[in-house]
């Protein structure tokens, strides 16, 4: 079951804690997104004050009139059950990563492994933030990591606070989906 | 650096409160958890089960908060999931949003009694939080 209706589909933003999933959805959503943030008590894992424990939800309308429902997942592995709930029926997935965070390349594997089973035709785009931080891996390093595993997916450098950057991720994903219209995924 | 959580609450005292509450007919286990899904204290649940209940419970509490807010109904207080094998109640502890209690009960539990007892338990836990 694809869960995809003509003219309306679902995209999931995922990635580790602090990668900017809530910020990215807020940057592009039409109207105020639904948030489920609570106080982050695990400042060892990340210094930020709040964290998403349910999901984010927003929506956008593309130029062709199709409506995209945007879901953001929690980032911590203990919310793995939410990853599967939210991944079900997704037309595509955007993995966000903070290149300056420790183990960012390993995190790429974790989220790709969790979400690849949910999306058909490799409808996956990777957005990497803070690649300008000294010693952070470049977008090429993330692309090479995917390539080594035989996964073909665009890797873009992004600042999730910028609407244009987040829309670029969405448009890139929609292009991949569009190349598979024959399989029932909207253009 | 230590984690911020249960700064004011003694896990041992909380566990004792849950233990007493475990006497309520039909109650199988209870887990007190932080709003971001960490177990603080539990009764009759092993470590793996209580960790999972804490994470799922925190998502439901957060979704309950989002839904109540969306509907203009104020703050989340509690939610009960009823199934053919029993019920799970998730109730906020005290007036803060910092923690909730999840209680799993079998078919033999009477829902009204369960909710009343859960409320009493949350009140006792809230007193520990803010004596």
UniProtKB/TrEMBL annotation, chain A:
CDD domains associated with the record: Ras_like_GTPase
Listed InterPro entries: Gliding_Motility_GTPase, P-loop_NTPase
Domain of life: Bacteria
Identification of the protein by name: Signal recognition particle receptor subunit beta
Upper taxonomic lineage: Bacteria, Pseudomonadati, Pseudomonadota, Gammaproteobacteria, Lysobacterales
From TrEMBL, chain B:
InterPro entries given in the database record: Mycobact_SerProt_Inhib_Rv3364c, Roadblock/LAMTOR2_dom
Pfam families registered for this protein in UniProt: Robl_LC7 (PF03259)
TM spans (from-to): none
Roadblock/LAMTOR2 domain mapped to chain residues: 14-105
Protein's UniProt name: Putative regulator of Ras-like GTPase activity (Roadblock/LC7/MglB family)
Source organism of this protein record: Dokdonella fugitiva
């Amino acid at each position: 079951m694809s869960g995809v209706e003509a003219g309306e589909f679902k995209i999931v933003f995922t990635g580790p804690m602090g990668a900017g999933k809530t910020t990215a959805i807020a940057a592009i959503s039409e109207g105020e997104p639904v948030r489920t943030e609570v106080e982050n008590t695990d400042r060892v894992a990340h210094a930020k004050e709040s964290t998403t424990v349910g999901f984010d939800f927003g929506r956008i309308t593309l130029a062709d009139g199709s409506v995209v429902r945007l879901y953001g997942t929690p980032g911590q592995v203990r919310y793995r059950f939410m990853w599967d709930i939210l991944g079900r029926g997704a037309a595509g997935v955007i993995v966000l990563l903070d290149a300056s965070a420790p183990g960012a390349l390993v995190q790429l594997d974790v989220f790709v492994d969790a979400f690849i089973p949910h999306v058909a035709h490799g409808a996956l785009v990777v957005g990497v933030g803070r690649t300008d931080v000294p010693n952070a891996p470049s977008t090429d390093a993330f692309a090479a990591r995917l390539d080594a595993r035989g996964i073909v997916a665009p890797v873009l450098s992004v600042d999730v606070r910028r609407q244009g950057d987040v829309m670029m991720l969405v448009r890139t994903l929609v292009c991949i989906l569009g190349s598979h219209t024959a399989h029932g995924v909207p253009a | 650096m230590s984690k911020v959580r249960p700064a004011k609450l003694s896990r041992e005292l909380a566990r004792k409160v849950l233990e007493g509450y475990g006497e309520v007919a039909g109650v199988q286990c209870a887990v007190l958890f932080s709003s971001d899904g960490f177990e603080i204290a539990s009764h009759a649940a092993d470590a793996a089960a209580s960790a999972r209940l804490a994470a799922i419970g925190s998502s439901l509490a957060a979704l309950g908060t989002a839904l109540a807010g969306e509907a203009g109904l104020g703050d989340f207080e509690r939610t009960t999931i009823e199934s053919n094998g029993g019920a799970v109640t998730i109730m906020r502890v005290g007036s803060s949003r910092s923690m909730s209690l999840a209680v799993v009960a079998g078919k033999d539990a009477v829902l009204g009694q369960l909710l009343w007892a859960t409320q009493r338990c949350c009140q006792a836990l809230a007193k520990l939080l803010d004596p």
